[in-house]
């Protein structure tokens, strides 16, 4: 016959309970050490993802602006009394940029066949042939700067801004 030893069962139970009691805060402590690193990496990935999304959105807006430019239209110019083609193209880019246009601080370089770049400034006046004539090849390029939010990532970008350039090249239609 087998005899039971209740005192051994109790002591084993007490020992395992004592081990568990000593580890109650370990998971919380481990999470406290790892959580800041995980949150930092999450913010970093989100910051870079948004910067790439802004780049793609502005690329789309420039492509749509170039498509508008090569057709010779002026219908989008806010000043319809004497419409200017370049203002209509800029307005098309603003419309297609999903509200990002004022946030990226754009500067333009427009090149027509001759290879001579013309820079756009909001206070300058330009001729109606700024985007060339029918059959000319037009390159519309915008330089942009997007502010990075994550502090560690900002140190990798000059001035804390993700600087990028987007461009579209098209041939003017016979307008």
From TrEMBL:
Give the matching InterPro entries.
TadE-like_dom
Pfam families the record matches: TadE
Q: Which UniProt keywords apply?
A: Membrane, Transmembrane, Transmembrane helix
Q: Transmembrane helix: is it a keyword of this entry? A: yes
Could you tell me which residue ranges the TadE-like domain spans?
25-67
The UniProt transmembrane annotation reads 24-54
Q: What's the protein here called?
A: Pilus assembly protein
Native organism is: Paraburkholderia terrae
């Amino acid at each position: 016959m087998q005899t039971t030893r209740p005192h051994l069962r109790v002591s084993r139970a007490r020992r395992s309970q004592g081990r568990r009691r000593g580890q109650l805060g370990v998971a919380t402590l481990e999470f406290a050490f790892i959580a800041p690193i995980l949150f930092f990496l999450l913010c970093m990935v989100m910051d870079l993802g948004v910067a790439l999304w802004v780049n793609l959105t502005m690329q789309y807006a420039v492509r749509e602006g170039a498509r508008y430019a090569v057709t010779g239209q002026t219908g989008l110019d806010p000043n319809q009394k004497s419409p200017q083609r370049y203002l209509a193209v800029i307005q098309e880019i603003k419309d297609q940029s999903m509200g990002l246009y004022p946030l990226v601080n754009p500067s333009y370089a427009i090149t027509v066949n001759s290879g001579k770049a013309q820079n756009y400034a909001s206070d300058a006046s330009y001729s109606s042939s700024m985007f060339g004539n029918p059959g000319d090849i037009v390159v519309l390029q915008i330089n942009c700067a997007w502010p990075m939010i994550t502090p560690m990532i900002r140190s990798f970008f000059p001035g804390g801004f993700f600087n990028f350039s987007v461009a579209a090249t098209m041939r003017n239609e016979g307008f």
